Amino acid sequence: MNDVRGIKQLAYLYKTLRREDFRILHAIERGMVYLEDITTFTKMDLKDASYFLGRLSKIKLVEYHEERYNLKYSGLDMLSLGYLYENNAIKAVGDQIGYGKESDVFESIGNGDEECVLKVHREGISFKNVLKNRPGMSKEDWVKISKKSAFREQTALKRLYPYVSVPKPIASNRHVNVMGRIDGCQLNRADLEDPGWFLDKILDEVKKSYERGIIHGDLSKYNVLVSDGEVFLIDWPQYVETGFWGSEDILKRDIKNIIDHFSRKYSLNTDLEEAFKRITRR
Hints:
By secondary structure, the protein is α+β, with helices and mostly antiparallel strands. Helices cover 45% and strands 20% of the residues. Strand 1 and strand 2 form a beta hairpin. Helix 2 (19-29) crosses helix 3 and helix 2 (19-29) packs across helix 5 (73-86).
């Protein structure tokens, strides 16, 4: 179940699949794991269903174990790609440009020829960390956790964009988000000529987010992008509402992560409580 193939490779494979392939993938996704159930759901006869299941197993979109067919992660990827292509959210997929602890990012072209990215949410590094860092999540399986992460991020981006400097949300399906591309440098890799200005700018964006009822929840030097004198806050699946129990402590942790980076790298000393009051107006 941990098989993960490149989205670009799957995009090529998508062009070779038939409607019957997707009917079977949909059936397995909905819990039809036995051959008899799959034939009933897809309205295929046994011979045709067996043929397409063999095909999907050969190209590693599904797997067969103990009389059950299971969707592999690449099968889930294919279902998302199929939806995004069919609904004109994207028309091409390019190379992988980002590697995260819980996601992979690929360049893409939207239906209007605009540059965008596909963010593919993956299983967290452990259920323990997922449950600890993301309120409202229970012990769900890997598919549901990935879908939940994508949904939460898309929800946050829709609430924040364009009021806060975040990626533009374009489309979402299952565990994949399509968003506007930002060609920037991670804050931890940037050498800033005016670090004080950039620190103020980041805190301003945190404030704007707070004013819209959202706290990032995992803000650090790794999910702030710097581009042409602008800053962008990325990676939002772990956001919390401002009214959430413990949200003030989470906000302070976000702020501390940022001001600690500027203190270590640029010797800028910023008082945490003052920065907190500036954002919350308390």
